[in-house]
Specification:
single chain; 6% strand; mainly alpha; 2 strands; globular
Length: 71
């Protein structure tokens, strides 16, 4: 979460309870539940995951969210 805040100026909450070390929390409500805010947040998360060596298909989450917003 610190990487996303430092590099994209996006605040992400850490997980809680038994999944604390395996999850994160993102909150978007009202106007911020739009593509204008959600997509850059997902891009920042994906960039931080890649920068920290996690293996995944880059931009897959962003593309999936774009499809939802286009419905």
């Amino acid at each position: 979460t610190a990487h996303v805040r430092a590099h994209q100026n996006i605040v992400i909450g850490g997980g809680m309870g038994p999944l604390m070390d395996r999850t994160l929390r993102v909150g978007h409500m009202g106007i911020t539940a739009s593509a204008q805010y959600v997509l850059p947040t997902l891009m920042g998360i994906e960039a931080a995951l890649a920068a920290n060596g996690h293996k995944f298909t880059r931009w897959e989450g962003v593309r999936a969210a774009q499809e939802i917003f286009e419905e």
